User: What shape does this take?
Amino acid sequence: MNTEVEYLECEKTWVYDLLTIAAGWFGAYTFMQRGGVFCNAQTANVVLFAMALGKEDWKTAVYLLLPISAYFLGAFVSEYLGKSVKRFHFLRWDTVLVGIEVGLVVFLGCLPAKAPDQICQVILNFMCSMQFNTFRQVQGVPAATTFVTNHIRQVGHFLAKYVRHKEQAYAIRLKVHTQLIVCFIIGAVTSTVACRFFSYRAIWGSALLLLLVFIGLVHADRSYEKNLLMKVPHGH
Assistant: This one.
């Protein structure tokens, strides 16, 4: 991370930490309360889709296209709206997206227990895809907020480089990726405990985290970053 570069509020560490905690919360919540699946990424669904094709299980294959398509659509919508929202010169797309997430999470917590799990799954597929496509770099370090597979790889990668070269730049990146893994775990642990006490309403806890991010980003957009609404975050 280059501390001399001026980063937008939506690229700051605290934003990525809270978004990653919320993502860990989603993962544990959907597994425990909504069908025993993970909705933050699509690798497993693509594998299952391919297996269904190999078995000529067309019904399952078509069913799996639903979450995959929702994830695809989330990337498309976030990329399209990200450019369109700028024209209003009021809020950044990053801010608008988090506000949308707050509303969707509140809605999901209102769903009755008997509601089809697929409603929650597809909405979170769509939402996580938008978040993954929108938040790409934390203060200059490429990072994902919705899953940790790449962070685990990066920890091994930069640990080896630091052990060999002892350069501070590698230590900083190692810290960033390790911190995001820890945040994801914190979110999943907290969500698991919350599910034990609050069942289907437990997802509202993640809404509080997202609301904190939303308030912080709105404050930035309407005050000290008001003249930077057209500035593109790093990684886009």
The domain at 10-227 is CATH 1.20.1250 (Growth Hormone; Chain: A;). Residues 168-198 form the longest helix (31 residues).
